[in-house]
Amino acid sequence: MKKTLHIDGMYCAHCAGMINIQMYALEGVKDVKVSIGDKTAVLTLDRDIDEFDLKNAVRKAGYTLISID
Questions:
Q1: Alpha carbons 14 and 53: distance in angstroms, whole number
Q2: Band of residue 25 on the pLDDT scale cut at 50, 70, 90
Q3: Which pLDDT score is estimated for 48?
Q4: Residue 40: which of 26, 28, 54 has the closest Cα?
Q5: Distance CA 56, CA 38 (A)
Q6: Edge-to-edge, what's the strand order for the sheet holding 29-35?
Q7: Residue 1, pLDDT score
Q8: pLDDT, tens digit, for every residue of 36-69?
Q9: How many of the other CB atoms lie within 10 Å of CB of 12?
Q10: Which residue of 24, 33, 38, 46 could cross-link 42, Cys pair, CB 3.0 to 4.6 Å?
Q11: Yes or no: is domain 2-68 CATH 3.40.50.12780?
């Protein structure tokens, strides 16, 4: 299963690294691909993760979750 997170505030490799750290901390995340240009993080999951948990992880990284596809 894949989810695309649209994230506001990412501008550099450090930003991508912070998102990676928080996403991999969530149980069920198998892979994360962050695109600074697109301001997205594409997650590959082995189980569904609640949107609240995703939003909270993005917030902990210091950014704002705009939407999830």
A1: 22
A2: very high
A3: 94
A4: 54
A5: 21
A6: 29-35, 40-45, 2-8, 64-68
A7: 95
A8: 999 999 999 999 999 999 999 999 999 999 999 9
A9: 9
A10: 33
A11: no
**E strand map for the chain:** 2-8, 29-35, 40-45, 64-68
The amino acid at residue 33 is K
CA 44 to chain CA mean position, Å: 10
In the chain, domain spans: 2-68
Alpha-carbon dihedral 18, 13, 41, 55, rounded to 10 degrees: 30
Q: What is the mean pLDDT of the chain?
A: 97
Q: How many CB atoms lie within 10 A of CB 11?
A: 10
Share of the chain above pLDDT 90, in %: 100
> What are phi and psi for residue 4, nearest 5 degrees?
-110, 120
